[in-house]
Design goal:
The protein has 10 helices and 5 strands. The protein is of the alpha/beta class. The structure holds 2'-deoxycytidine-5'-triphosphate. The site of 2'-deoxycytidine-5'-triphosphate has 15 residues, from helix 1 and helix 5.
């Protein structure tokens, strides 16, 4: 395997809220030569003492723009972070932020069209001007009712008000982006994994992706 400091084989792990992205990344901790970048949710919950995730859920009309602007910044920082390993595994990307979350907020009217325009211009600028490596997308495909139960069970305080309809809409947007290809930019081939299985059975499913991610016999 050729090892390049500047260009690792870069994998985005995508899927609905509660689809097991963090668990998927943790599965790869056992392997050497792989950098794991989990989503900076803790940064979103504590920016100089402010919980932007909570503000966004409590008053979306007021805070969705601020929250998504900060998500884009933290995602871009992850995209640009250099690694010394040949493989880089990232939770989410600026693409799911734009094509799933911002898209939903625009369609639902949570974002004013002017706010959406600003976020979209930022996204376009980043996409066109800043090199973002993407070699593979792992899509943890789930059924909305399954992840809805998981979200209730894990009881992250900010997400208590999340309704099933929101999860269903996010599911559709992930499908549109990664399966139906309604957006021009799907930046890499997509590997679909059945992520409905519960924790005790999911490891076998995760193992099926090891070969493609590590790109050697495992
Ligand atoms: N979120 C958002 N906008 C984004 C990214 C995330 O509003 N652009 C929100 C949705 C969730 C929280 O942030 O409330 C974290 O969502 P993720 O699906 O990214 O992460 P999870 O922790 O749910 O992932 P998993 O359970 O799959 O590990």
């Amino acid at each position: 395997m050729s090892v390049s400091k500047s260009k690792p084989f870069t994998v985005f792990v995508e899927g609905n809220i509660g689809s097991g992205k963090t668990t998927f990344l943790e599965h790869f901790r056992q392997f050497e030569d792989i950098t794991l970048l989990t989503e900076p949710v803790e940064e979103w919950r504590n920016l100089r003492g402010w919980n932007l995730l909570d503000l966004m859920y409590k008053d979306p009309a007021k805070w969705a723009m601020t929250f998504q602007a900060y998500v884009s910044l933290t995602m871009l920082e992850m995209h640009r972070r250099s690694t010394s390993t040949p493989v880089k595994l990232m939770e989410r990307s600026i693409y799911s932020a734009r094509y799933c979350f911002v898209e939903h907020m625009m369609k639902a009217g949570t974002l004013h069209p002017a706010q959406f325009a600003v976020l979209d211009e930022w996204f376009r600028f980043i996409h066109q001007q800043i090199p973002i490596e993407a070699d593979l997308i792992v899509y943890l495909k789930t059924t909305p009712s399954v992840v809805y139960e998981r979200i209730k069970k894990r009881a992250r305080s900010e997400e208590q008000c999340v309704p099933l309809t929101y999860i269903e809409e996010l599911h559709k947007l992930h499908e549109d982006w990664l399966i139906n290809r309604t957006h021009a930019e799907c930046p890499a081939p997509v590997l679909v994994i059945d992520a409905d299985l519960d924790l005790s059975q999911i490891t076998e499913e995760y193992r099926k992706s090891e070969h493609q991610i590590l790109r050697k016999a495992v």
